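for the writeup, i need someone to sanity check this before i put it in the appendix. the sequnce is what the collaborator sent (i think, or maybe the updated version? ugh). structure was predicted straight from it, no edits. if anything looks off just tell me and ill rerun, i have time this weekend
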Amino acid sequence: MKRVGVIGGGQLAWMMADGAKKLGIELVVQTPNKSDPAVAIATETIIAAIDDAEATKVLAEDCEIVTFENEFVNITALSTLVEQGACFRPGLNVLSHILDKYEQRCYLQQIGLPVPKFIALEESNVGEHSYALLQKFPVVLKARRHGYDGQGTFIIKDAETLQEKLSASRHPEKQSQYLLEEFIPFDRELAVIAARSVTGEIAIYPIVETQQQEQVCRRVFAPADLSAELVQDIEAIARTFLESLQAVGIFGIELFLTSEGKVLVNEIAPRTHNSGHFTLDACEVSQFEQHLRAICGLPLGNPTLRSAGALMVNLLGYETASGRDYLAQRQQIAQIPQAYLRWYGKTASRPGRKLGHVTVLLDDRNRHKAEAIAQQIESIWYSVSSYQ
């Protein structure tokens, strides 16, 4: 039986449980809090910060392979562990091109993938010449590290706001580096989950359309309504990226589709991804099982849908509260035909926090019907709040 170490104990690690059980894999989790979701499913738990390299050393000594649930890691510190025999998948050489969003953009551009215009923004080059390179406002300001669910990302409408935001972010104890990029007036946001195994086998899931609100994903529609040509273009992007790095594991690739039909890569995450949660209940093999298959040297599974389509809706926090389980709302949502609700067991709610999700299998690809179901779920979930 293989033992896989997972750095991070949130819902992404928690959702690896079914795949691990099916494949006969034990999960050992490094996470900072005993209340984190994955503690409940782990064979063993190391309670330590995500970037605690000494704790990761213990994890690596106890496991054949170590993987990542999030990007809050210190590559420099982990490199020493590789020299001592630790096996990380994805490898640190892969992560080194991805974790810093500016370096990720540079790498994608280097291998010929389409990305928005961008520049690194630091104190030394803040001024007219910085955003002039992007030609016009609005622009997008992003923290180069540790941003997720809209945190660290700002849409800037004018030069004064840019200066204010940068000034507010300059803290004596925490200097931030930023990426500045052109604002893309996209027609739709898309995403695709793709995996590559140790042997070079690649599996690509159906491309999905995502809908964001306040830069947090609210809904995912699978598959996206796209031409065969666009599907081929996006799959080619995924293959080019995976092959260029000889990457092992699963990756979430977020994209913009412009009104002119052009596809641009927004961001790539070196892990399982929110846009792929529908795969747990709608696909032959989930993204979580697929990731374990990929990193453990097993044959990849079938990524195809088990139904004509699927809808995934995130159940987001809309209040600051502790100990609430929202049971009545969850029970009502679970009564929707072909609905599968996953509750992460988090002990605290706050606005925008992902507390769970629901996937509904669809008998057809009628978008109006899918939108109506999404609205039904959200009307139940947010019925007791003013959260919009």
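Residues 117-182 form a domain with the Dna Ligase; domain 1 fold (CATH 3.30.1490.20). The longest strand covers residues 188-196.
thx in advance!!
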